Amino acid sequence: MPPLSELSPDALADLRAGLRKEYDALKGQGLKLDMTRGKPASAQLDLSAEMLALPGNRDTTAEDGTDARNYGNLQGLAETRALFSTLMGAPADQIVVANNSSLALMHDTIVYALLKGVPGGRGPWSKEEPITFLCPVPGYDRHFALCEGYGIRMIPVPMTGEGPDMDAVEKAVSDPSVKGIWCVPKYANPSGETYSAETVRRLASMKTGAPDFRIFWDNAYAVHHLTAERPELANILEACAAAGNPNRAFVFASTSKVTLAGAGLALWASSPENLRWYLAQAGRRSIGPDKLNQLRHVRFLRDDAGIAAHMEKHRELIAPKFAAVEEAFAARLAGQGVAQWSAPKGGYFITLDVQDGTASRVVALAKDAGLALTPAGATHPYGKDPNDRTLRIAPTFPSLAEVRKAAEAVALCTLLAAVEARLG
Amino acid sequence: MPPLSELSPDALADLRAGLRKEYDALKGQGLKLDMTRGKPASAQLDLSAEMLALPGNRDTTAEDGTDARNYGNLQGLAETRALFSTLMGAPADQIVVANNSSLALMHDTIVYALLKGVPGGRGPWSKEEPITFLCPVPGYDRHFALCEGYGIRMIPVPMTGEGPDMDAVEKAVSDPSVKGIWCVPKYANPSGETYSAETVRRLASMKTGAPDFRIFWDNAYAVHHLTAERPELANILEACAAAGNPNRAFVFASTSKVTLAGAGLALWASSPENLRWYLAQAGRRSIGPDKLNQLRHVRFLRDDAGIAAHMEKHRELIAPKFAAVEEAFAARLAGQGVAQWSAPKGGYFITLDVQDGTASRVVALAKDAGLALTPAGATHPYGKDPNDRTLRIAPTFPSLAEVRKAAEAVALCTLLAAVEARLG
């Protein structure tokens, strides 16, 4: 079929009639599918079944003699920090292993900055209002909600395929009110792209108006590959140190999509000075994390090879789901000039850019057909996508058959919305 | 022996010489004892050994069908909330079950109040600086550190044996800058006293200058009995509701000293309106708690009877330690007019009031003899006990033999410091 732009009004009207018929048939199927969130499927969680009986009755002593059952050890067990040293790109002594949510660590880091300030700053960020974060778009709605919740202004910056548009970033950070930037540097949520070495270098070395500017480096998908290709991500902590900005980056990750989504470990890493600062703040909040869950992870994952082997099993389960989406989109949307979509090499999402001005309509059509999609705009600050264009597709949680069905439905809704828009 | 006050200077000097000899002998023993923190002993943690292999490989589905391994359920599993309903004095739907630290819940509740404000208030508390909390003394150093860390002024209020001096509290809260009060209402840390029904009624019904005044009700020792007596604590949430102040109290507790100190569950309860507020804030911070640990607790503790039976086992282990301290103090200090100490019916601490002006000296003497005590002043805001009088003794962690030895050492140091002070 030719691109929609080459169709006559009559041909478009005929196409719309045909698509509506298809759509009505879709509605008649009474689907109940959810493609909203990047949740592991039950089969993925089964990969960690062994953990559910760990550490076992007699295994509660850490390498340094710590009784993992009792209070204490705010930074986390040494062997757990060592286990995640490669993944975090930091020495074990610059890592904090906490409870089950890296979002919580990002939240707390922001709260401590707001109420106490960070090293190199002039005091609490909350006294310098308004402050601003740069938000590469499309991005992660929970990052944006944190900023919005605490009155931190957000400036969107476009992603380029190798990370944020660094010319725009470098220009924006000259403003001293700009205190931070959100980055998902590998297999980005939702575009799937990995920041280039040059992007990392420029982020680490750029001149900032704020002396206490911080990069929130949410490396959520560090080991979450979908193909045999393994794009290299430059080490942000090393790049910052080399550029003379050792305290610039806070690194976050978690095992939520490695072991158990609700019962993983959250990870934090930064410079020695930032670490001391963080622990001083976190020490008022808690006496220490759940160290039994840390032992569980050490016993189960063991080392880098153990993590890699485990992630291969995830890949076997979810790569076919991504392929099914790709197939459905290609079959229906290729060459139509109404949509573009990403082919991620890792991570949890596919970005679908539909015809400008139709993303909300696609979501509404899908909803009426029993398919929940992330709201249009969720990939942008304040939930506002100025082009009403970008949708985030999360194919991991439903079964492969459901994913295929859902992707076909999304493609149909995308096409129908585009035709409707052209006909006015 | 007669009270010190009846001894002649010569008799005092003789006494000092004898005590110093004893003290030098004590130092010669090379003790290494720690009575600083209310930590369960290893034998207490062994009581929950069964939990270490729970929930087991096939037991991950909650009563409502939730997969406890996956993301979600910010408020906690319904069956876990039900399990702690009696302990919290709140219906399950007004309870939040979180991760392993109730201190973290107190911290977060304060942070949300500072940055967002609470229901009934005029906005973020941080915009109304300075704000003030009332701090019944002696009290818990980590409560005070939270206030100090975030610049919240603290006003000490004396404890009376049935809770804080309510005349002083009622007078102080007329000041609209007073936003909160810290309460450990049962087996208080460290005095051991339980608030009377009248104290609870007055706290719930008193007129406050601030429309958004809050009681931080840290019911840390709700089921932690040391005797067969079970002093009744009135229900603060019901008292506040009855008095027309339904949103006044935030209730906190944990299972840190029920199951596993580092891997327990933290509990939060309040009015429906406060609950909605709390979840709205906490929902930006995290997608949900570790629900597998919640299942572990439900499987292990089962119900109120299960909790009570389990706490009896703790009592059997720790009551003898409290008795050993009592015996050692009585043997050495009774009738000397140099010290008073509490005889708690529950909780984790004994308060030892030494001769005014000598608490720091007692701690220093103990330290030189190899016995770590909580710093003098720790029971007061800013670490300052104006009378240099109150010491907190934590007898649970060391072995019974060590506790006896440590209590004898404390008694000796207390007596020696008192004699020294009298001789100038």
How does this structure look, described?
The structure is a homodimer of 424-residue chains. Chain A is built from 14 helices and twelve strands. In chain A, helix 1 runs antiparallel to helix 14, helix 12 crosses helix 14 (400-423) and helix 13 (359-368) crosses helix 14 (400-423). In chain A, the strands form three sheets. Chain A has a seven-stranded mixed beta sheet with strand order 2-8-7-6-5-3-4, with helices on both faces. The first copy, chain A, folds into two domains: 4-44 and 308-423, Aspartate Aminotransferase, domain 1; 61-302, Aspartate Aminotransferase, domain 2, CATH 3.40.640. In chain A, strand 9 and strand 10 (350-354) form a beta hairpin. The mean pLDDT of chain A is 97. Chain A starts with 8 loop residues before the first helix and ends with a helix. In chain A, 40% of the residues lie in helices and 12% in strands. Chains A and B meet through helix 5, helix 6, helix 10 and helix 11 of A and helix 5, helix 6, helix 10 and helix 11 of B.
Question: Could you list some keywords that capture this structure?
Answer:
homodimer; 424 residues; alpha/beta; Aspartate Aminotransferase, domain 1; Aspartate Aminotransferase, domain 2; 2 domains; 7-stranded mixed beta sheet; 3-stranded antiparallel beta sheet; 14 helices; 12% strand; globular
